[in-house]
Design a protein that fits this description.
The structure is a homodimer. By secondary structure, chain A is mainly alpha-helical. The first copy, chain A, is about 65% helix and about 5% strand. In chain A, α3 crosses α7 (about 150-155). The structure holds a DNA duplex (30 and 30 nucleotides).
Chain lengths: ~160, ~160
DNA sequence: GCTAGATAGTTTCACGTGCAACTATCTAAA
DNA sequence: TTTAGATAGTTGCACGTGAAACTATCTAGC
């Protein structure tokens, strides 16, 4: 009879680890600034990229449901962390970009989060970290999980 | 100015991967049998272990909130996939164990899920798989995420 | 230029989950 | 024996999220 040790089952381990890491991060820093995970994803995408993006683009890049992004954008607008300008070429979509306040928050948050990530990985050697990231990358690719900016653009333009 | 590419940020990658894997599994197999993730966790714990367990024990092992386990147990009882017997030594808790029907479902499900896990990891060589699991183990340990049966028992007995 | 279908974004709804309060039971100490 | 505090399990509540419906706008084909 086939058996399965849940504690060694990869999907379970990933789910447990992701949940733990996520609450650790959001609990300590993100909640501190009054923004939640989807809002952080919007801000992170806008902060990293130079040009303004559409909500659709953010949704595709972060693989987050468009309704979730929509609500996050509404909140960020309300708190004046981002602003949106109409797109003359296509009046269905809006160009989103961080405000000065949003950029300030972003710049405060980044070092904290990067430090957190380093803490999390500090139990691995440099080589192990590299291998771990590479393995993760292979799995992501095989699951067609990686959405490059190019692909997103291509999709956006279909 | 510090920047952060969300797509290379480990917490984000883990969250995205876990979500994808989870929906892939639950969508294709678990939903097919009308049970959801918490119910599967209960069944997996009971099926793997020989002796009956308490809900508390399952909650600790799987790091799933006790209210979630409670609801999962209620559903599984309703569908006669598990049964519970009073514990004479401590009448607060119940001993949970799979029924014949539950065991049958478990045995049908296991090979499918294991095959799925293999598919997911098939993009890695044997050595890479081993290294990946080891790295994951180190991170889990450093985050105090690993709950052994012994520890759970110790905690249960405080 | 019109119409059909696609797309961006919003909103309503149903549902699953964590938190906190609650009941029942157990343990330890006075 | 009584009482205070801990524990097992359940339930009400608030909240976040995905699916689906909806509006407005765009594109392609006629």
């Amino acid at each position: 009879m086939a058996r399965l040790d849940l504690l060694k089952f990869m999907p379970f381990r990933l789910s447990r680890l992701a949940a733990e890491v996520s609450t650790a991060l959001s609990g300590e820093y993100i909640e501190q600034y009054g923004i939640d995970v989807p809002q952080w994803r919007v801000l992170a995408t806008l902060g990293f990229r130079e040009e303004p993006c559409s909500a659709q683009f953010i949704s595709q890049c972060t693989r987050t449901h468009k309704s979730t992004i929509s609500r996050a954008v509404t909140e960020l607008l309300k708190h004046k962390l981002i602003e949106r300008v109409e797109n003359e070429d296509d009046r269905r979509e809006f160009r989103l970009q961080p405000t000065a306040k949003g950029t300030r928050l972003y710049e405060e948050l980044i070092p904290r989060l990067l430090r957190r990530e380093q803490d999390m990985l500090s139990c691995l050697s440099a080589q192990e970290r590299k291998d771990f990231a590479a393995a993760l990358g292979k799995i992501e690719t095989s699951l067609d999980l990686v959405q490059t900016s190019q692909q997103a653009k291509a999709k956006a333009a279909y």
